[in-house]
Every structure is written in C-alpha cells, then in structure tokens.
Design a protein that fits this description.
The chain is mainly beta. About 10% of the residues lie in helices and about 50% in strands.
C-alpha cells in the first residue's frame, strides 16, 4: 500500500500545478465550478446547478453567441465549442493483498452545453480500460421549454452505465451513478447497491421547478441499435424545499415492466426479456451547524427477485439502506464523511451484507480532487477492509 501512496503522491506533484482551466459548462457560464455544485463539491448539485441542468444545459453567462439577427429563435449558437477532458485514477488495496492501480479508472472527452435556443447536449466519449478503446459512453439531447418558472423537457438519451435515471436527475444520493458523494458507490447509495447502473437508452420526459420535479422514461437496457423492442418504464418524483438555510431533497424512484428487445442480427436468436421491478427512496439535506457546512444523505432500495430480472436473479428480494454524513472542515476545500450500509443480497445463504465507510475529500482546485476512502465490510469472510485513493481532474 505504501508504494501505491508514493506513486499517487508523485502524480500529484507533476499534475496538479497545471490544472487551472474550468470544465465545459463553467466556460459557457463564465463562472466557477462551485456556482453549480454544492458544499460537497463536484459532482453534487446545488439549487442553481439543478436549474442549469433542467434548462438542458442551455443557460448562458459571459460567453458570446453567434446568431442570425433576423431569426434569433432559429439560430443561436455559442461562439466557442465547450469541451472538457475528465480523468480519474484510482489505487485500491485490501485484506487479500491484491493491490490494484487503475490508470485511468475513467477518462473522457465531454462536449456539452447549448446547441440552440431550447436545445442542449451532453456528449461523453469515454475510455474503456478493459479493451483499451474510446467509445460513446453517454449522450443526451434535451429539448426544453420554460413557462412561468416551470421547465418541461424531452430527452433522448443513451448511456453505458447510468441506467434510465440518466434521463434526468438532480439529487446527490447516487440515484444516478455519477452523482454520489463518495467513490464507493455501492456503500453510500442503495440504488447503486441493487444494480440500477446499467446500459440504457430511451426517451425521458420531465417537469421541473424549484420545489419539485417529475420524470418518466421508456427505455431498454442496451446501448446502440435495437430491433423489435418493447420498453420497460422508469418514474421519478422529487421535492426540493428550502427549510430555513437548509437545502432539502426527498425523492422516490420506480422501475417496472419487462424490456423485450433484439440486439442481435441473427433472426434465429429469440428476443431478450428483462424484468425491472424495483423501487427506491432517498433524502438529502445541506446546511450548516454553528457555521460549519454539514450534509446528510439516506437511501433505501429494493429489487424484486426473478430469474429474468435485470437487477436481482437471487432467491429473495435484494435490499439496502444507507446513511451518510459529510462535514466540510474547510469549506469548499476539505470534507470528511462517515456512512453505513445495511443490506440483504437476496441470496439463499449469507444474506447479510453490511458495511461501514469513512472518507476524506480534498480539493486542490475546484476541478481537482483527491479522495481517500476506508471501507469495512462487516459480513465478508475475506477482504473485509479496503482502502481506495482517487485522483480526479476535469479541465
């Protein structure tokens, strides 16, 4: 483990000093990353971040526009293509002494922002470390209209690992894979534990305002061309009240139906059928206690067992409940976290799968993060303890 720590330290010395540029959306807005991200740092969203996402990434700041003066509603394009490069490097060590250096764990080129009036995009070309190739990891093309404080959106999307919640999500509970507080996603998020981060493509519809948002998506668990398909369904409801100085969020998710599809050109291959029966509830609160920023997160999720289930082929329902607290000991710079997961893996024996986690996040810059997580798996016979060290940068 000491050698891994030394290697990451050397990487920090060589990389961090040059990481000053802002990611794609910050360039478009002409604002810092923390304009949209909460006291928990990237990727957690604050109220303005939720509004920006609901706009379909079309809100503009200081960046100029190229427009047809006679038809501004027909052509209105940012004068700069907003591009970011994102990289994540991880070092992992555990009781079984199988040290792992993921270099990179993730790497991606992201193009995002305004396409035209009412139309935005998010395109991620990501690195697949398994076969050493780049491919289209995530794509969204939200079309939105705002009416008296309400935004209505339609989002064609595809993802290689976010599930149908990729269509639209604003909470920081891990309801969608990339919006989580700590890197160990299956410990801090019940939704991630039951396996909702899957291939997905479909059409999402949403209604957003500052108090609540509603989402529906018809989708299939593939990423690419699909034939002879019948979609499954996903729904999401969230309320986001402000109570005193606390930014709150309460939500529920529901996956239902059977996705039927053919992703093979072989006409003799029968259509695949995957059941998607699962539900989840989540909660978040961000505020301060005695002027110290503090956040609380809780999630619960359950996936019904079935031989044809996309999420749980065990003999019983799979379920998990998670609790996490984070304190910003240096606001916007250093956070410490502690959490617990109580889970049932749905198997015939050894069903208990509880775990505890502690983490530290340090932001050298708003867009450069070091994270150290220690997790203890209470019910595992081996590899009960694991240390994860991550370097993340976006520029």
């Amino acid at each position: 483990m000491r050698r891994l720590l030394m290697l990451i330290s050397l990487m920090l010395v060589s990389i961090v000093p040059s990481m000053y540029a802002m990611p794609a959306f910050a360039r478009q807005m002409g604002a810092s990353c923390n304009t949209c991200h909460s006291q928990n740092g990237y990727p957690a969203l604050n109220k303005f971040g939720r509004q920006f996402k609901a706009s379909g990434y079309t809100m503009m700041g200081k960046q100029g526009l190229i427009e047809d003066p006679n038809q501004k509603d027909f052509f209105s394009l940012p004068e700069t293509l907003n591009v970011s490069f994102v990289v994540k490097v991880r070092a992992i060590d555990g009781d079984d002494e199988r040290k792992t250096l993921e270099f990179p764990d993730e790497a991606a080129v992201v193009i995002g922002g305004r396409v035209a009036e009412h139309v935005g995009t998010f395109v991620e070309v990501g690195y697949n470390s398994t076969d050493d190739t780049f491919g289209l990891a995530n794509f969204k093309l939200p079309i939105t209209y705002a009416v008296e404080g309400n935004t209505f959106g339609a989002v064609p999307y595809r993802t290689d690992g976010f599930g149908p919640s990729a269509s639209f999500e604003v909470l920081n509970t891990g309801a969608v894979r990339n919006m989580r507080i700590l890197e160990e996603r299956k410990i801090v998020s019940a939704q991630q534990y039951i396996g909702t981060a899957t291939l997905a493509e479909g059409l999402g519809l949403y209604h957003y305002n500052d108090l609540y948002n509603l989402v529906y998506s018809a989708w299939v668990p593939v990423n690419g061309t699909v034939k002879d398909y019948s979609p499954a369904h996903y729904a999401r409801a969230v309320i986001t009240p402000t109570v005193g100085k606390w930014d709150m969020g309460f939500g529920g998710q529901l996956w239902w139906g059977t996705a039927k599809y053919d992703d093979d050109d072989d006409v003799l291959t029968p259509r695949l059928e995957k059941k998607t029966d699962a539900y989840a509830f989540d909660f978040q609160a961000a505020g301060d206690i005695s002027e110290v920023p503090v956040s609380f997160f809780a999630t619960y999720a359950r996936a019904k067992n079935d031989a044809d289930s996309l999420y749980n082929t065990g003999v019983d329902d799979m379920s998990a409940a998670t609790f996490l607290t984070e304190v910003a000991v240096i606001p916007s710079v250093m956070m410490v976290s502690a959490g617990y997961r109580a889970a049932d893996n749905g198997q015939a024996a050894d069903t208990s799968d509880d775990a505890a986690i502690a983490g530290v996040k340090y932001f050298f810059k708003e867009n450069v993060e070091i994270q150290l997580d220690y997790s203890h798996h209470i019910d595992l016979a081996t590899n009960k303890n694991q240390v994860l060290l991550m370097l993340y940068a976006a520029f």
